[in-house]
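Quick note —
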Amino acid sequence: MKQNPTRTCAVLVDLPDIVVLRADRDGPMLQVHVETGATSAGCPDCGVVAQVKERVVVKYCDLPVYGVASTLFWHKRRWRCSDRDCSKKTWTEEDRRIAAPRMAITDRAGRWATRAVGEAGRSVNDVAGTLGCDWHTVNDAVLAYGTALIEHPERFGTVTALGLDETGFVRLAPYYRTSFITSIVDVGQGQLLDIVEGRGGQGSKEWLKNRDPAWKAAITHGTLDLSSAYKAVFTAELPDATLVADPFHVVKLATSKLDETRRRVQNETLGHRGHKDDPLYRCRRLLTKAEERLSEDGRSKLLNLLEAGDPKGDVATAWHAKEAVRELYSHQDQELAITWLDELAADLSDKIRPPEVRSLGRTLKRWRLEITAWHACHFTNGPTEAMNNLIKRIKRVAFGFTSFRNYRTRSLLYAGKPNWSLLETIRPR
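Predicted structure written out below.
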């Protein structure tokens, strides 16, 4: 059966009621020329039947055809009102099925690029190479379609546990100081709600202040590391929420105090930083290892090295303090945890303890309620750290960001769980 070549091309283009004028091959690029089927139009102001003034050919980046990058040339009609008294003199036809206004990419290619960049996590430059266009064309499409997805009012629902944490954003001249962002995460669902600029808590406080009071009232727990700034955010905006100090950061603090003690004693006894043959330097890995994971040989080696390099027993004291903090999470009884922590904090704060251990004791005493709250709810900041890892993956794929708007959009499209089924309903302005 003989078929009309133009009709076959129209099926491949897959734009209903769009007339395919011709298709050419320009080197590695496929060029398709189309026009709408409109033969008349009314003036949008007065309704008088308009006349065609001229035709303007507009170039759009389109989806590849059988692996070949393609360009769509839309022969637009420019209409002129027949009524001389009408204020609407001329206008150019629009058809959102082909492309949104002021976009250099077709509607379908823009939606595909948004999904490829946002859901699949591909870089904008990679997608631009697939489509055969420049970086700005794809990025503009991702911002136009993606912003509507991440700002959809139903992207996240009721949140019962909220987590805050910071991660590095960019280092820019002068001085190349690192700028940070704060991740706001639904810890219960493992969803990135938003990211705000800064790490001091002001941005997240403003974000919470702009939320609906009924939505905030549903939040019963707030997870955080041992940050006074984030604690102040929860206290000011979510005063009824139970704050939970992340167990990982509590143990990390104890381990860091142990390492500070080891380095201080190393300098006091030998007068220099650790060398490979120094006892305290040789046992640095064994000190951070969990005691129950030490073999008999490992434990014997650790005790012998401490005996050789720790004459006053400061490092051994810090090591036992670290293990005592770890032991706090070996059970799930909150009342027992409070009693244990109070006695531990008092013991570590004794004047005979090394200064690093006393500092640890003061911190445990100051955060006693937040630390022991874990034993009742078992919420941690782990999902927040996981979202930070996803954000960092996007940053690595893009080889870094300098625009916070691009950074936020890409991060929320990838880790913010937008409803991708709504992508077909979005109409960029």
